[in-house]
Amino acid sequence: MIQQLVMYEEELAQINNVCEILHRDSNARAVLVIDKNGQAFAQAGEVEQLDVTSLSSLTAGNVAATGAIASLLSEKEFAGQFHEGEKTNVHISIIGQRVIMVVLFDERSSLGLVRLRVRKATAELVTILDLLMKKSASGTQPSVFSEITDDDIDNLFND
């Protein structure tokens, strides 16, 4: 079972930075990082015209379906997918078996350039995700509940 991913502000900023650099260096239209449940948590590029919520959900479903195909073929998973469209191409990568990276690109870029830049971004994201998992497991960050006292709970129900 995969440990639940808890996101902290510092790591989220680092992930957003990786997205920005990948967007710039690959000449992509947009870059998204989503969890396997289909929730986008980092993005860069031309996302204003995108339905990010739907795209993220459908991509996660696509990755799940492709995972089932991999299982039928006795593969662990297919780490990457590519969809070629008339105007927009989609490159999908599973990063560290934890998150999904989606790169949307057009004629301003090429599949080779995207793959090259995704490889570098993947290494950086795996490092960030590993640190994040260690931080979550060690409990070095205070819980949001640590500040709540019994008096606070009593006051909440006494209103």
What topology emerges from the helices and strands here?
Elements: H1 9-26, E1 30-35, E2 40-45, H2 52-72, E3 80-83, E4 89-95, E5 99-105, H3 111-138, H4 150-157
Antiparallel strand pairs: 1-2, 1-5, 3-4, 4-5
Description:
There is one protein chain. The protein has a single domain (9-157), classed as Dynein light chain 2a, cytoplasmic (Beta-Lactamase, 2-Layer Sandwich), CATH 3.30.450. Helix content is 47%, strand content 19%. It is built from 4 helices and 5 strands. A 5-stranded antiparallel sheet has the order 2-1-5-4-3, sandwiched between helices. Helix 1 runs antiparallel to helix 3. The protein is globular and about 60 Å long. The N and C termini lie far apart (42 Å). The relative contact order is 0.17.
Question: Would you kindly provide a brief summary of this structure?
Answer:
With 159 residues, the chain is of the alpha+beta class. 47% of the residues lie in helices and 19% in strands. It has a single domain, classed as Beta-Lactamase, CATH 3.30.450.
Which spans of ≥5 residues are poorly predicted at pLDDT below 50?
none
Shape: globular
What's the total number of strands? 5
Q: Order of strands in the sheet with the most strands? A: 2-1-5-4-3
Helix content: 40-55%
Largest sheet: 5 strands, antiparallel
CATH topology value: Beta-Lactamase
Under the CATH scheme, which architecture would be assigned? 2-Layer Sandwich
The CATH class turns out to be Alpha Beta
Number of separate helices: 4
Radius of gyration: 18 Å
Count up the domains: 1
Overall mean confidence score, pLDDT? 87
Compressed to H and E, one letter per element, the order equals HEEHEEEHH
Structural class: alpha+beta
According to CATH, the homologous superfamily is: Dynein light chain 2a, cytoplasmic
Q: Kindly estimate the percentage of residues that lie in beta strands according to DSSP.
A: 15-25%
Distance between the termini: 42 Å
